[in-house]
Known about the structure:
The chain is mostly beta strands and 325 residues long. The protein folds into 2 domains: 17-70 and 82-108 and 243-318; 112-235, no CATH class. The protein contains 4 helices and 21 strands. Helix content is 6%, strand content 40%. The strands form 5 sheets. Strands 6, 7, 8, 9, 12, 13 and 14 form a 7-stranded antiparallel beta sheet that branches. The mean pLDDT is 91. The relative contact order is 0.21.
Amino acid sequence: MMMASWFAAPAPTTHRVRGYFAPVSRLTQSPTVFDVAEQGEFNLDAPPAPWIRLGWIQQFARKALSKTAPVLTGIPAAAVQQARETVAAEVSFEFLSWTKLTMALATGSQHMNVLAAEVGGSPIATGGSAIPAVAVQSGSTSTQIILASSDAAQFAAGSIVAIDVDYAGQTGFVGAGVAGAFVRRPLADLDYVRRVTFNVSLVSAMTPSGLTLASELPCGVPPAGAKLQAVTGFVDREGGSFYQEWSGLFVVEGNQQERIFFHYPRLQSVAGANEVTNPLAGSENGGISRMALKGNFMALPVTDPLDGERVLCYRGFLPAPKALV
């Protein structure tokens, strides 16, 4: 009888690390859960909702900062056990692409959409008076936005749009699906929520009834009363009191099809806007370099419902097929 070809797996070899992020509910401090048993074999190019694929990252480094202290007893005192004195961890890496989300993650404060400006408006650093928003019609989905025909005529394939509600004087966290800012006092800007919203996408095509988006909105179906405005770019600021907070998932895929997962339920930026320049191979003397976004994050604790323990990170592993365990 032929025996199965089981083998002892060597240490995983891999090329790079993939990064995925998902929103944390700031009101309830509820992170996005990643279940290795149910989701561990997901298509790495199409993560399960609400995880957002941010592509390859480099210089991935984890740092455990928890401290332990001995528990002493007796005369003379001797250590009988140890206890955790503090629980802390950090993670850092470099993004290999510039997008709205990677820019936001690589800064410590609000990340803002530069709304298309009205002609003759007063300029300000974060964008002045914007072209008025148009109403999103009922029946819209996360990728199909229905507009009145006269409103749709203002846009074209290749444009960027932000979709969210009008600002109505509320305080606290604002932004549908993902908190884009924390408002401490009422503001006078009707467009403020759309300036900070993460519900931004590229228009891939025009339809008879509106727009088709190239990627799904993080909030899913636009909220009732949502409006749409054109976006020309993005800007963030050094300083401010708001901290980005996201759930992070980092995946290492080995050459034997094994996978290592680092799941951080809550990550907050601990540094301001930060970039690094990496000279391209063979161009050290030619001045050609790649500018990458640098992310530095502090892991915040969650309570594991399994046993009530406080946890900063889950490290998961799926062995290679037929590998001994």
